[in-house]
Amino acid sequence: MGLRTGEVARRAGVHVETLRFYERKGILPEPPRRKSGYREYPPETVELVRFVKRAQQLGFSLREIRELLSLREVPEGARARVQSLVEEKLREIEHKIRHLEAMHRALRELLHACRCTGRSARCPIIESLNGCPTCRADGDQEKSLGKKGATRLP
Amino acid sequence: MGLRTGEVARRAGVHVETLRFYERKGILPEPPRRKSGYREYPPETVELVRFVKRAQQLGFSLREIRELLSLREVPEGARARVQSLVEEKLREIEHKIRHLEAMHRALRELLHACRCTGRSARCPIIESLNGCPTCRADGDQEKSLGKKGATRLP
DNA sequence: ATAAGGCCCGTACCTTAGTACGGAGTCAAG
DNA sequence: CTTGACTCCGTACTAAGGTACGGGCCTTAT
User: Fold this and answer.
1) Domain A5-70 sits in CATH 1.10.1660.10
2) Domain residue spans of chain B
3) Each residue's pLDDT tens digit, A45-79
């Protein structure tokens, strides 16, 4: 028993075209076909698609998500390379969590104060994401611009 | 002392054009100009722009960020409306944090196992974002599709 | 005072992530 | 055995978030 595009799409909460799109982008593996040409997805595809949508909401691009998913099946040989990649992703996630927590605190603070204190400066919302010591490089960002456009900025 | 576009851009790690773009989108307030027409930004603009970039990395759209920023100055009258908006944002952030934590656990698990256990199913990465009880509605997503395209999906 | 570099503006273009379209073949219920 | 829903494919379009371009004024260091 395999699911057809419409069924997968409905269960995962996306459009049929999105499944084809993900397939083209290498995010969904090409499923087997019946002789009519119809795709027959394994049921776990639904979870897979949901994972993609959630990860997007957390600020990961499709490229990053594909990378993340590729970690499922490691080519047996290349352990170390993958391991450091996973570690990098872990740092990134920790970073995001800390930022979100800071934002959360700021909004709660705002809910209490119910207004920014000063005329202009000292707003807890903005401060929330700027007091992060791990982000405190400043020079990093300036360097990363370098001679304008050397590194892909956003 | 006010900063000019280039200075703000350099310090915040974005392009000058991005500042103009944000201004058009209502994310940066229009700064005062000198008589030459040059913009003179207050120094806290740098923090503001950094906030925007961080928030984007956390999966917020510019529209949402503008909303978030608008909470800084509440029109004095509309408290209750703002308060519920803030509470909604707080829930959303908690949600994101929980998902990221789940993803983090999954990747750590993967780092230990260093391979998905089964041939195909039972992958900790994918399971990480699917076991969330708050997301467990399923019907929600199906309904949200409704009669195809009624609600803006992604 | 003049040249290099910064800034102005509008417009055009780019990438990412889908959405829509339309003609043709497939499937299942009546 | 037909009718309506589903699927196929390629191609075109859209929206968001920038980026680039080019002609024309500022500014400032030499």
Assistant:
1) yes
2) 5-70, 79-133
3) 999 999 999 999 999 999 999 999 988 876 666 66
Long-range contacts of A12-18 (CB under 8 A, 24+ apart): A12/A45, A12/A46, A12/A49, A12/A50, A12/A53, A12/B141, A13/A50, A13/A53, A13/B140, A13/B141, A13/B142, A13/B144, A13/B145, A13/B153, A14/A49, A14/A53, A14/B153, A14/B154, A15/B145, A15/B153, A18/A49
Looking at this predicted complex, what is its ipTM? 0.84
Strand C CB-contacts below 7 Å = A 14-15, 17-18, 21, 34-38, 52, 56, 61-63; B 4-7, 9, 16-17, 20, 33, 37-39, 148-149, 153-154
pLDDT in tens, B69-81: 988 877 666 667 7
